[in-house]
Structures are given as structure tokens and as C-alpha cells.
Amino acid sequence: MEKQAKVDSPPIGERLLTLKEAAEVLRLSPRTLRVYLRRGELEGRIIGGRWRFRRAELDAFFANAARNWDFVGKHEHGK
Q1: pLDDT tens digits, residue range 7-37?
Q2: Phi, psi of 12 (to 5 degrees)
Q3: Nearest to residue 29, comparing CAs of 69, 60, 63?
Q4: Does this model's pTM top 0.70?
């Protein structure tokens, strides 16, 4: 039997949120959340092929977000 790697994260004490639920909490679109995930600015896990989020991670993302969020508008792609 192999030992699993020890992870220094708190146990799951609350239910995990879906991508849509996380987007609703942050009042963003799911597409925008995916951008932040790709950039590594938001923590999430893929479980069963779907994104899942802890509420604490969403709160930390919001607390650390700049006052003027930096994202590319749809007319600025490719510049």
C-alpha cells in the first residue's frame, strides 16, 4: 500500500461550490472565473470533471483583489 501525500489544507467543513455558484457569490460570470483560474489568481479543484470551490478561497480571492480588476475586454483581445 502506498501512503498518500499529506496536504496542509483544512478539512472540508462545508459543502463545495460549483463554478456557477462561485460565480454568483463573486457576482462574476463563469467565463470570467475561468480566466482567473487559468491565471492562477483563484484556487479551485476539478473533482469528477467539474470545478469545485471552497467558500474560504472565494473570500480570500475577493479580499486580495485589486480595486480595479485587471481583465481584457472583448474588444482588446490580441493586442
Answers
A1: 566 566 678 999 999 999 999 999 999 999 9
A2: -75, 110
A3: 69
A4: no
Do 63 and 55 meet the contact criterion of CB atoms below 8 Å apart? no
Using alpha carbons only, what angle is made at residue 63 by residues 61 and 67, rounded to the nearest 5 degrees? Answer: 100
User: In terms of pLDDT, which residue wins out, 6 or 19?
Assistant: 19
Check pLDDT > 70 for residue 77. Answer: no
Classify each residue of 51-62 as buried b or exposed e, where b means 16 or more C-beta atoms within 10 Å of its C-beta.
bbbbeebbeebe
Kindly give, in sequence order, each residue whose CB lies less than 8 Å from that of residue 69, ignoring residues fewer than 6 positions away: none
Please give the angle made by the CA atoms of 53, 75 and 61, to the nearest 5 degrees: 20
